Amino acid sequence: MIIMNTRRWILTAIGLVVLLSLPLFLPNFWLVNIFGRALVYGIVALSLTFLAHYGGFVSLAQTMVAGVAGYSVAMMAPTAIPLGDVALPYALAIPLAVLAATVAGAVVGLIAVNTREIYLLMITLALAVGFSLFAQSNITWFNGYEGIRNVVGPEILGKPFRTPLVFYYTALIVAALLYLLVLYVVRTPFGLVLQAIRDSDRRTAAIGFHVGLHRIAAFALAGFIAGWGGVLITFYNIGITPSSIGLWATVGVLIMAVIGGLGHPLGAFIGALIFALMDTFASTIIGHDRFNTLIGMVFLVIVLLSPDGVWGIGKRLPTALAGRARTKTANSGAIR
């Protein structure tokens, strides 16, 4: 076990070094529109993976929670068009937006605390679609269908946030910190109790733990994670509209998580990267009008070959190769 954990941390460190060095080799288009996009959307998928893998419940409201953060920062942004009634510096608007997403996550957990499986999916989907329709119809706060534009983000070290290097490294640092946060939380007493609830909520309640409170806290933590993703996605898109948090966006995040693999937090970013690549180059492969067909085919192939996604394939591949090598060596010895 110690050897496996050490190997995992070594691979994580190597992956982080590779990601840090990408700007030395890749043009700005790849940094921003492929890897940067994968990082910010992967954060929202990470919140879903955290709930699904360690809590045992799949929430389709994570895009809505990210949208709460996105609209909150847009409404308070000093550069927004139209300008909100309360314009704050980004240094205040960003943490307040993440706080709003955390509260929204807790509210979702409070509503869905007693639901399971298909009922949980339906109630969280209803919340996501309902919030999108509310944003589309509300003119006073959300500017209706047009949304809020020109949310460019803060200056960092004197450079605009939309500068490719600034955006990429900020997204990478935030994604890495949230990824490490998840790995830390699941090893704390709270994380262990959450996994016990996933395995058997009745047994966990029988030994004295408050199952409902832990579920709500898990949704709140997932909301905190999704909130950071929502803020960064709003900066990436230079604004937010109801369509960016609608049904297709909700399904897209779910596809990212499932393709990458719900069995490990890293799967969220793997799935987001695959999704970004296909979305960007779909017009070359199959035509952009048929992107849904392409992503559907890829989704089916990956799920059929590996129910735990690309992460599961990568996890089993070394074992399979080692077993094949041992078989080949044994056969060679037998022939001699």
Task: Name some characteristics of this structure.
single chain; 336 residues; mainly alpha; 13 helices
Could you explain how this protein is built, in words?
Helix 7 packs across helix 9. This protein has 13 helices and two strands; from the N terminus they run H-H-H-H-H-E-H-H-H-H-E-H-H-H-H. It is globular. With 336 residues, it is an all-alpha fold.
Q: What is the compact description of this entry?
A:
This protein is mainly alpha-helical and 336 residues long. It is built from 13 helices and two strands, in the order αααααβααααβαααα.
Bulk shape: globular
Poorly predicted sequence stretches spanning 5 or more consecutive residues: none
Q: Nearest-angstrom radius of gyration? A: 21 Å
State the end-to-end distance: 37 Å
Arithmetic mean of pLDDT: 88
Strand order, sheet with most strands: 1-2
Helix- and strand-based class?
A: mainly alpha
Note the main sheet.
Answer: 2 strands, antiparallel
Taken as a percent bin, the fraction of beta residues is: under 5%
Give the SSE order as H and E letters. Answer: HHHHHEHHHHEHHHH
Number of strands: 2
Number of alpha- plus pi-helical segments: 13
Helical content stands at: over 70%
